Amino acid sequence: MAACRGDPCARARGTRGHGSVEDRRALFQKGTDALAPVRQCAEAPDAARVAALAALAVLAALLRGGRALALLGAALGAVALGSLAWNGHGAATEGRVGDLHLASDIAHLLAAAAWLGALAALGLLLASAKRLRTKEDVAAAHRALEGFSVAGTLIVGIIVATGLVNAWLLVGPDQVQELGDTLYGRLLVAKLALFLGMVLLASINRYRLTPALAAAAHDPRAAIGALRRSLAFETAAVSILALVAWLGTLMPPTAM
Fold first, then answer.
1. Once rounded to an integer, what is the mean pLDDT over residues 139-160?
2. How much is the average pLDDT of 29-45?
3. What pLDDT digit, counting tens, does each position of 174-204 carry?
4. Which residues contact 131 (CB under 8 A, 6 or more apart)?
5. Number of other residues whose CB lies within 10 A of the CB of residue 177
6. Confidence of residue 111 (pLDDT cuts 50, 70, 90)
7. What is the 3-state secondary structure (H, E, C) of the chain?
8. Which one, of 168, 190, 194, lies nearest residue 253 by Cα?
9. CB crowding 115-125: b at 16 or more within 10 Å, else e
10. pLDDT single digits (tens) 52-65
11. How many Å apart are CA 58 and CA 123, to the nearest integer?
12. Are 255 and 28 contacting, i.e. CB atoms less than 8 angstroms apart?
């Protein structure tokens, strides 16, 4: 993929410290001709995404139930989602560092999707207290929450690790103190604040609210209500996706 990454972003990083800011911005924003190699390389991932989404739609329309089908649907969704990395900053980095950046972007996307998907599933599980009428129902809900707690730790670790890789490549250690001076930096700080808020809520769910549900098996209504509210606040933080989309349209500090 190295041959596909000769775009203005990578060249602008190489010209840092040479020429005016306006010259470097012009180099980054040359336009259609300069970005043609990246766009050509994105054609295959775009086709894969369309094919995966089409297969997923057919699967959802014609087939129901079964773990194997659920795994197949998840795999198709992962292909569709991972292909989006070729439309981001990761596809604009050259060489082996570019391969690392692209892989990091893909892992970041998949981990974030797993987190949000799990939140949606748990939210549906707890949406109505009427579904949790018996001790067995409450025990099943508790097992689901505990299972997500374990998986969630791994997911958060992947998000943090890949986020650090992306921050190193797009911001750089020399630019950390200047984040507040650019729109990109301010949006990045807002994204980090929302992410930390989600992690805080997830920690409360794992270490306080989930054990409270197990302890209140005879009358779980209060515990279920607390979990439902916490998950609602955590899900509301998906506004972070809007920030991610906005950041993808901006020139990163390392290209300035």
1. 87
2. 46
3. 777 888 888 888 888 898 998 998 899 889 9
4. 125, 137
5. 9
6. very high
7. CHHHCCCHHHHHHHCCCCCCHHHHHHHHCCCHHHHHHHHHHHHHHHHHHHHHHHHHHHHHHHCCCCHHHHHHHHHHHHHHHHHHHHHCHHHHCCHHHHHHHHHHHHHHHHHHHHHHHHHHHHHHHHCCHHHCCCHHHHHHHHHHHHHHHHHHHHHHHHHHHHHHHHHHHHCCHHHHHHHHHCHHHHHHHHHHHHHHHHHHHHHHHHHHHHHHHHHCCCCCHHHHHHHHHHHHHHHHHHHHHHHHHHHCCCCCHHHC
8. 168
9. bbebbeebeeb
10. 667 666 666 566 66
11. 26
12. yes
Structure tokens at 105: 């972007």
> Domain-by-domain residue ranges, the chain?
2-255
